[in-house]
Amino acid sequence: MHRKTILQARDDLKNKKYSACELLEAIYNRIDSVEEKVRSYIHLSKELALEQAKEADARLASGDDAPLLGIPIALKDLICTKGSRTTCGSKILDNFVSPYDATVVKKLKEAGAVIIGKTNMDEFAMGSTTESSAYYPTANPWDLSRTPGGSSGGSAAAVAANECIAALGSDTGGSIRQPASFCGVTGLKPTYGRVSRFGLVAFASSFDQIGPVTKTVADAAYLSGIICGNDPMDSTSANVSVPDFMAGLEKNVKGLKVGLPKEYFSSGVDPEVLENVQNSIKALEKLGIEPVEIELPHTQYAVATYYILACAEASANLSRFDGVKYGFRSESSGDLNKMYTNTRQEGFGDEVKRRIILGAFALSSGYYDAYYIKGQKVRTLIKKDFDQAFEKCDFIAGPNSPVPAFKLNEKLNDPLQMYLSDIFTLSVNLAGLPGMSIPCGFTSQNLPVGLQLIGRPFDEETILNIGNQFQKETDFHKKFPNL
Ligand code: GLN
Known about the structure:
The protein is of the alpha/beta class. About 40% of the residues lie in helices and about 15% in strands. It has helices spanning about 5-15, 20-40, 45-60, 105-110, 155-160, 175-185, 215-225, 245-250, 270-285, 300-315, 335-345, 350-365, 370-390, 415-420, 425-430, 460-475; strands at about 40-45, 70-75, 115-120, 165-170, 185-190, 210-215, 255-260, 290-295, 395-400, 435-440, 450-455. Glutamine (GLN) binds near residues 125, 128, 151 and 172.
């Protein structure tokens, strides 16, 4: 049962092959048997989940047809869930219980989903390995000595290890797509503004988006149909109608043009990653898709631009954690100032502190124009690269990450190397575009490789359509790690 996709489980529940309570039990049994090795979760909400599953069974019996009725879903632990903890992977929020549900959680609950627990992540989503979590690192289910990627590493590992049917993650600079590619699952970052950020704890507010992490593209489309849409509670949420993503999956893709950015197929990419990505482009050609070479000339500035702007926004967003309003407060307080300082000193980890310092520096008078304003200008140039590229193609394809999953601890003490590994995902957030990772092959060491598909703003439909047609012709997404 734990191996089911959302769509399969939904059919089975409707056909009474098993009940929502039985499905939930199967998932928790699976968690019991593999979690010691993988550590995808920070905490589980067994009692609440059981109540939700019982209610789902009652609703199923009465013929209710809500779209996620009885489906066990995991959430990255920076999405607020009323009455249960939301730690953001940080000591500073260790004891924080959300007073309200994020809009996405409200939508999932209305759709009948069963929320099984909150997944591990880099502290405040800052990282690419899940190692900056204040709790423990998560392991990659395909090779336990390696990272699942990050920052939504817990969500990707939980889906890959079949510890949930599907999950939500968040993506500020690649945090859904890169772990999805490292763990061999599907991950979609929707267009900025497509999904409400209300109740998503902010890291860099002009970049952050919530999105699905699933076993198939069809499941990602299905879940997107539920979580996307305008929300008056989030002023950056876009008032754009949401298409029927499920209907869009079966459109004819023949004649569409795929843009191949020459900067994404450069010598810095691991040869095995490149080979798998190139083979999958050939598979797209077999579907009648025409490749065209494109240029994204400002790609080389993406890492610097992202890390200046995201850190600047983070330094402002994280000033709210002061020991007064939320979570942890240092025991060793003296006067008010000492209380603030000690709380932040003890409550935040090294990576978060590094970013607050970098961001405050970029925003400080004297440096504001040289770093922050310059960064904003380059962001516009990066966006324009994509506008020009999309005059020649309908979507863009390339690798998600220049390398497959690296070893735990490999880059932990070398932040610059860690940042550089984000090179292919950051531009998509800088430009606010939709991007998706789908499994496209394995290296000789049996590590998954992901293909990144990038769409025009608010055109998730095309990349979901392409991804679904690709998954009809390939079976990389049907492989499970041997745990
Ligand atoms: N790895 C990037 C960073 O460390 C992206 C993180 C994210 O998307 N949340 O900022």
